[in-house]
Amino acid sequence: MDAARKGQVTKSAADVYEEFFVPALFGKWGPKVSDAANLAPGQRVLDVACGTGALARAAKDRVGPSGSVIGYDRNEGMLAVAARMRSDIEWQAGKAESLPFPDGAFDAVVSQFGLMFFEDRVAALTEMWRVLKPGAHLAVAVWAKLEDVPGYAAMTELIEGLFGAEAGDALKAPYILGDEGDLRSLFESAGVLNVHIDSRDGVAQFASIAEWVHTDVKGWTLSDMIDDDQHRNLQGQAERTLKHFVAEDGMVRFTHPALIIRAHKP
Question: pTM to 2 decimals?
Answer without folding.
Answer: 0.92
